[in-house]
Amino acid sequence: MIEELRIQITAAQERLVAAVEADQPYEAARHRARLEDLIEMAARHGIDVSAWVDQTRLRG
């Protein structure tokens, strides 16, 4: 589960960066929300993902 979570977080961050760079605010918000959901899911299972997440990407 941890490796899959890491993969999903990495993918969400990459998509978020691409959406921001392409000036697509709706898509950026969507990927940011997905990233936040993954972080919340990890926390519910006691998994610390802070080292995997670029916190600056969570600010919209």
Q: Biggest β-sheet: count, sense, barrel? A: none
Shape verdict = elongated
**What does the average pLDDT come to?**
95
Query: Which consecutive residue ranges, at least 5 long each, have pLDDT under 50?
Result: none
- What's the number of helices? 2
Cα radius of gyration in angstroms: 11 Å
The counted number of beta strands is: 0
Straight-line distance between termini: 28 Å
Helix and strand composition category = mainly alpha
How much helical structure, as a percent, in the residues? 55-70%
Describe the protein's topology.
Layout lengths: L1 H20 L3 H20 L16
What does this molecule look like?
This protein is an all-alpha fold. Helices cover 67% and strands 0% of the residues. The chain contains two helices and no strands. It has helices at 2-21, 25-44. The longest helix is centred in the first third of the chain and has 20 residues, at 2-21. The protein is elongated. The mean pLDDT is 95.
